[in-house]
């Protein structure tokens, strides 16, 4: 069984994925961590690597193939913007969760976490989301803004990560799915 947790930057996907994976006793795979690691390997800042990926679709394809292979035949929680829709498109049985929150809320979370300027964070988020949408559409014909393919959509604005994890576990039958 695979559980994918998607959402835009600052939606809470990494934190919630950690909690859900721990409660289920499953592994966690982070697409964002893998992308950041690859940027570091290439000696590039994340923003520069993201720009590089815009003109080199093989970066996304390789990373996505690696993530899906890691998830093959496992009990895992995978967090990443595209992972849920990509898993479904590749015939992988999974529960797909999307965490949502308004841009302002997500930006404030990132400002708090990374100690950055609010307007800079808003600009970074908007740039990244535009880039991601275009890349995912060009490579996979997937509209990241179309949430109709998700099993569960949760507004995280006024919920703690623990509350969100409990909602997901409830969807899984109290965490007793296939165990």
Describe the protein.
The structure is a single chain. By secondary structure, the chain is α/β, with parallel strands linked by helices. Helix content is about 55%, strand content about 15%. It has eight helices and five strands, in the order E-H-E-H-H-H-E-H-E-H-H-E-H. The protein is globular, with a radius of gyration of 16 Å. About 30% of the residues are buried.
Summarize the structure.
By secondary structure, this protein is an alpha/beta fold.
List the helices and strands and how they pair.
Blueprint: E1 2-7, H1 13-24, E2 27-30, H2 31-41, H3 46-55, H4 57-71, E3 76-79, H5 83-89, E4 94-100, H6 103-114, H7 118-140, E5 152-155, H8 161-171
Parallel strand pairs: 1-3, 1-4, 2-3, 4-5
Would you state the CATH class? Alpha Beta
Could you say what the CATH topology is called?
A: Rossmann fold
On the 0-100 scale, what is the average pLDDT? 90
Question: How would a crystallographer describe the biggest sheet?
Answer: 5 strands, parallel
The helix-and-strand class reads alpha/beta
Order of helices and strands: EHEHHHEHEHHEH
Give the N-to-C terminal Cα separation: 9 Å
Number of H- or I-type helical stretches:
8
Provide the low-confidence segments as ranges: 175-179
- Estimate the strand proportion: 5-15%
CATH homologous superfamily heading: P-loop containing nucleotide triphosphate hydrolases
- Please give the number of β-strands: 5
**Helix percent band:** 55-70%
CATH architecture: 3-Layer(aba) Sandwich
What count of structural domains? 1
The gyration radius over C-alpha positions equals 16 Å
Overall, the morphology is globular
Strand order of the largest sheet: 2-3-1-4-5
